[in-house]
Amino acid sequence: MSEEMMEEGGGGVIKKFCYINRKAPYGTIYALESLEVVLIGAAFEQDVSVVFADDGIYQLTKGQDTAGIEMKNFSPTYRALEMYDVEKLYVEKESLEERGMTADDLIVPVEVLSSAQLQDLMEDQDVVLSF
Amino acid sequence: MLLHTVNKSPFQHAALGSCLRLSKDGSAILLIEDGVYGALKGTKISSDIENAMKTKKVYALEPDIKARGVQDRVLDGITLIDYAGFVDLAAENKAVEAWL
Fold this sequence. Notes:
The complex is a heterodimer. By secondary structure, chain A is of the alpha/beta class. Chain A is built from four helices and five strands. Chain B is built from four helices and five strands. Helix content of chain B is 31%, strand content 22%. Chain B is globular and about 30 Å long. The chains are: A alpha/beta, B alpha/beta.
């Protein structure tokens, strides 16, 4: 194991974790469960990237108001990810375009990547978790 | 007539496409839960819904639209209804066909 993979002080290994979100919020539990797991990974000070593709981009839609369906609106939590040092948020350009959306429609700043760029990003990970 | 309900995203399931293909002219189609993503402007399936609206009446459940933050992107011609409106539609039609 190389020196740079050792976490300073703690001695734990830091791996590159990538979470792939492809489901819309509320209709299924995947989006909320993914968010929980992302926060757990961040608590262990791992190198976290979060990818939103397909319907996953709907998790980040601005202006969600869940009062009428009596479910918790968890979209503000995406804005709190920064506090857990989860700052690498990626959105697939093709998924935005298919849905007539732009990065301006999203509640957090993201980096918009093409499918080809996402292929490289995912190839570069140690662990990929799909939701 | 039948009331057709669709609760799946049109981008991940064939439910909406099958519903549009197999529902008779004059039918009511109600988009609920993740199905409401089928009610939006500017998507790759918007034109399918617009074509369907020439011969069928399309509704979307407003609480599900608002929950998903898409209230400003609903296609013109789609009627937003609340839960009481859902009950009315179910009562007005002979039966409900749920496209799961």
